[in-house]
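Batch job 17 of 40 flagged for manual review because the log was empty.
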Amino acid sequence: MGGPVTDVHVHVQPWEMLRAPVLEAMRRGREDIAEVERCLKDPKALLAHLDREGVARIVLINYESPDVMGFTAATNEGVLSFTKGARERLLPCVGVNPRFEKDVRGRAERLADGGARMFKVHGPHMLVSPNAYLGPWPALRDLYEVASARRIPVMFHTGTSIFRGARTKHGDPLEVEDVGVDFPDLEVVLAHGGRPFWTEQAFFLLRRFPRFHLDLSGIPPARILEWFPRLSEIADRVLFGTDWPSPGVPPISQNLAAVRALPLPAALLEKFVSANALRLFS
C-alpha cells in the first residue's frame, strides 16, 4: 500500500548508558523486551524487525543528556557506527548539548561529516531551551547555523516528559518561535506537536513557518484530529513517527495502521507516512 514508510522518531539508543530509574521505566511491564534489546544491539535484527513491521526507513533518535537520561556524547558516535552499513534505511539523528560541549560548531560539523541526517534538541532532557542561544547558551546558535548551512533538519522535543529529572518547561513549542524567526532557512521538526497541552501553540508555529514540520510521534492516533482538527492545512509537512520503544508506545505496525485509518483522504495519509519524509530526507 502506497510508498515506502518512514518512521521519523525511533529511539534506538545505548540502554547500557541509561540511569537506573530511566532504565527501569523503559523495561517495566514490557512483553517484547527481548526483541527490543536485540534491535538495540544489532542493526540486522533491527532491519528484520522493520521488515516485519512494514517500515522501510527509520530515523534513530539520539542526543547528549548525561545528567537526566545518562547518555554521554558517545551516543552520537555510537549511532553513526550502528547505522553505517545501512544508511539508506537507518538514518542517524544526533544531539549536541551546549551545557557539556565546549566546541558546539566543531562537533556539529564533525557529526555532519560522519553522516548525521538530523540534529535533536531535547530541551526537557538536555535542560536547554530551544532559544537558549539568546541567553545562557549562545553556542547553540552554532548548531543551528551548521544545520541550516548543511540542510540538516533539527528536531525539537515539544510537550511533556515524565522521566526523573526532566524539566517540561523546556518543551514549550513557543520557545522554538525564535528559531523560526532567526533561522528562516532551517528545516524544523516539532516532535509530538506540543502534546498534550501545547498543541494549539504548535499548530500556530506550523502555520506561521513554512519550514516547520509536525512529527506525530507520541500522539495517540485516536487523538490526532482532536488536537489538530485542521491537520489537512499542513498536509505537506506532517511526518509519521511513533516514539517506539518508549514506555506505553504500541508496536510501529499498530501505530501505522491506526494513522492510515484516520478519516482523511488517502492521498493525505500517503504524504504523512511516506512522501513528506522522502522529500525531507532525500
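Reviewer: the log was empty due to a logging misconfiguration, but the result itself is present. The first helix runs from residue 20 to 27. Unflagging and moving on to job 18.
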